[in-house]
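HOLO CASE FILE
Compound: calcium ion
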Amino acid sequence: MTHMISPQPTPETSATPDWLADAIFYQIFPDRFANGDHALDPSDVEPWGNEPTAHNFFGGDLKGITEHLDHIISVGANAIYLTPIFQADTNHRYDATDYFSIDRRLGDDGSFRTFLDAAHERGIRVVLDAVLNHCGDGHWAFRDVIENQERSRYVNWFSVEDFPVRAHPTPNYRTCSGCYYLPKWNAYNPEVREHHYAVARHWVEKGIDGWRLDVPYFINHNFWRRFRQEVKSLDPDLYIVAEEWREPEQWLQGDLADGTMNYSLRDLVLGFTADGTVDASSYAASMTVLHDRIPTAARPAMLNLLGSHDTERVLTRHREGIAQSKLAYALLFASQGTPMLYYGDEVGMRGENDPGSRGCMPWDETQWNTEILGWVQGLASVRRRVVALRRGTQAVAAVTDDVAAIFRDAGEQGAALTLVNRGATQVAVPREFLDGSAFGGVAIDPAGWVVALDSATAPNAAVGTVVGAGSALVLVAAGRELE
Ligand SMILES: [Ca+2]
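Model generated. Tokens follow.
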């Protein structure tokens, strides 16, 4: 009986895991989240909270994460994405030396088991980082090539141009983006492929809930097509999410990934709330274009984010603007797709792009920004309670140049309307946004809205019909009638 947004033409896709619609992710950079076992610290460990650099270690580990699962739950998250945890030589561990073992500074198989079991007991899923384009120059196979040169059994696991192998001044082997310590795997070699698929199976069999694909665009699609088959044949509920900065749709045709890291959404949100480069009309138009590019099945499985280990932090990007940061979070939690928080952003951590955004999580709660934390917790709570925010269809519109509206429609299960006003004056919401006609003819009782969350410090004069200056408003409708 409910009129839905007109369906988008979409290609055939295979199903994506249903749990993603209800997920809220929390991303952790393991060296910097929590130090739970000082016995594992490297000898040159730095005091917690010192300036992060590209090379220093702070001793974060799996026990530390296990001990702080309550914090992750308290912000409303129920899934974790861990950047690499396998044996490696750097603090970021994108230079694996052995994909089958946990880095000794983080723990071992036993502490991974403890962590995974504790997470699962609390209803938290765990996704690991599949860094299969390249390894570290300390990887045992690459060491064998260094030692035995063209006689190495593994010489064709890499792409070496001539001998002897040299790293300087320019590597004479293929690398990731010219970085000498990241030799690129020869993914056309069947032995390499078997090694990589064995890695994928190994950790799935240990119980993880999915893989995030690192720089997947540097490897051919055939490799990832079979990767998906290997993983999904073990459990179709496993999540495969591709790192992608601009062109999500190539991964989302049903044969490669379930979703991508939605940096395109991030660009639009921050353009509107942080940079002022995108007004509400452009935001709405571009969000609609992005939405239409993503096949229906992939929409709830998109990993929406405002920041990560590869960007500046949310508060820093907003030039310390707390109110504007809150608007960005409102848009994140209102959008279709699973929201992801990058550790520490929820308590107002600051940091420029890598290495600045990889600082130590402060565990002294007096250092936390409780206004941001409370707002994020509120948004997560509303999303958990309101089906439409998790599972509704999405339509985005501009109310004025400064006010954007995201409408989510779950038919019989209700609707939600999030209004975000970045401007300096309050705005009365016109009737066509409250009765749904601005969103493609959806019919709603304009008086049927209830305020679920309001970032304004003072209550609005007419509740639900005015969105305050620099504030966000989340309205929900439990039921409605057709006009
Ligand atoms: Ca430690």
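CASE NOTES: Residues 190-205 form the longest helix (16 residues). The two ends are 11 Å apart (CA to CA).
CLOSED: yes
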